[in-house]
């Protein structure tokens, strides 16, 4: 006897108005639930105290769904929604559950425009999406549909990091989502700092970078769209002007190479005696000069294209807005047992700025200023040092793990020998 899969039947009554309004209690936006495929019974609040269970949203992490979601599955979900006339606003994958759950269930989270989908129609759509998951052998993921309004900022997306041979790689890096973005608040354009990204996409920076020093020292939390007054932009106006200058300087340096090679070629040709123009040495010199001129010409063209793209699509401050201040605790000195300074802020990144296929969060672009063996030698200068470091072929050094507080101050290997130290890499952009 074969059992009918849970996704193929409607095994519970439609959700009630109370469940629809309280199901996501605890989330900042408190969206209204339209439908869900899970058969877990929702428990209404019991008086007293009358409060529903609190939920939270977490990233998925390592899960089989991640391997196929961006490949084709998301597009198939979109086709189901569009074939049924659903006015959808977003499709996401997240873990959503009660705060006491260590590993909340994975949910395909679909947003629809408020008031456009009935609970009955929503349930049919959710079950169709659940069936698609099962067809792709994803059995432990549920589908939830909620009312959602997505407000996207205008302007270009983050650029994809350039491959190592690309002459624009170093100068494209500030416009990618690699760690170390140069940011400022649109309310304090004179104050600037850096931020590092994580999914659900948040950027971590210092509070003093995005909140004026003369503001009240209180918790900042923008819970609703109407409260999102503190927008965060990539580059302050001064830094953006410097960035364009850097590209211009790089072009002029390549142009100077072209001039030098042409001058050397002209002077070398004049010094050649009759019959030496076809000598092996002369041919080698000409081949080298030809290759140098061709490479420099290609680099000038690529850098010129980058400068034109940046000037056209990123010059307007509104186009450089990448998100808004989501949360920041009070600025506090001597916080915790160790007496550290509590000074941080979370910036929620606008999802329209991210191209999932090229997202490079939690990675440092090591740049092109140092070739791999130079970087490795600087990190491990002593021959007796053993290490497992392998320079990444795409230059993107993925960040993983944490360093305990004690090791931040004193490396445990220092006890063994004065030559075994903890080396720290700092990425810093030069200012003109």
Automatic annotation (TrEMBL):
Judging by the UniProt lineage, the source's domain of life is Eukaryota
Under which name does UniProt file this protein?
A: Uncharacterized protein
Taxonomic source organism:
Tuber aestivum (summer truffle)
């Amino acid at each position: 006897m074969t059992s009918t899969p849970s996704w193929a039947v409607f095994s519970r009554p439609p959700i009630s108005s109370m469940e629809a309004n309280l199901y996501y209690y605890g989330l900042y936006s408190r969206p209204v639930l339209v439908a869900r495929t899970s058969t877990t019974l929702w428990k209404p609040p019991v008086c007293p105290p009358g409060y529903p269970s609190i939920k939270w949203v977490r990233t998925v992490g390592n899960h089989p769904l991640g391997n196929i979601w961006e490949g084709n599955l998301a597009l198939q979900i979109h086709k189901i929604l569009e074939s049924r006339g659903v006015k959808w606003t977003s499709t996401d994958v997240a873990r959503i559950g009660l705060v006491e759950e260590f590993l909340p269930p994975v949910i395909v989270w679909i947003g629809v425009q408020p008031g456009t989908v009935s609970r009955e129609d929503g349930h049919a759509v959710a079950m169709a999406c659940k069936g698609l998951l099962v067809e792709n052998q994803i059995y432990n993921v549920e589908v939830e549909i909620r009312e959602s309004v997505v407000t996207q900022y205008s302007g270009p997306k983050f650029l994809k990091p350039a491959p190592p041979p690309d002459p624009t790689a170093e100068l494209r890096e500030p416009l990618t989502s690699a760690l170390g973005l140069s940011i400022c608040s649109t309310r304090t354009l004179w104050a600037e700092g850096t931020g590092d990204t994580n999914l659900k996409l948040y950027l971590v920076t210092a509070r003093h970078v995005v909140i004026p020093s003369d503001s009240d020292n209180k918790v900042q939390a923008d819970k609703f769209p109407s409260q999102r007054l503190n927008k965060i932009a990539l580059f302050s106006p001064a830094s953006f002007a410097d960035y364009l200058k850097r590209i211009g300087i790089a072009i002029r340096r390549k142009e100077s190479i072209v001039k030098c090679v042409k001058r050397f070629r002209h002077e070398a040709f004049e010094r050649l005696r009759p019959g030496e123009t076809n000598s092996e040495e002369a041919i080698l010199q000409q081949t080298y000069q030809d290759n140098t001129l061709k490479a420099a010409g290609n680099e000038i063209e690529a850098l010129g294209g980058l400068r034109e793209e940046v000037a056209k699509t990123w010059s307007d401050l509104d186009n450089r807005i990448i998100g808004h201040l989501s949360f920041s605790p009070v600025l506090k000195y001597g916080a915790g047992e160790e007496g550290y300074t509590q000074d941080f802020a979370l910036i929620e990144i606008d999802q329209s700025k991210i191209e999932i296929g090229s997202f490079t969060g939690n990675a440092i672009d090591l740049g092109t200023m140092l070739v791999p063996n130079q970087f490795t030698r600087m990190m491990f200068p002593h021959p007796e040092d053993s290490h497992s470091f392998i320079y990444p072929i795409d230059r993107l050094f993925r960040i993983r793990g944490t360093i305990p507080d004690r090791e931040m101050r004193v490396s445990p290997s220092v006890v063994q020998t004065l030559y075994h130290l903890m080396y720290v890499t700092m990425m810093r952009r030069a200012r003109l």
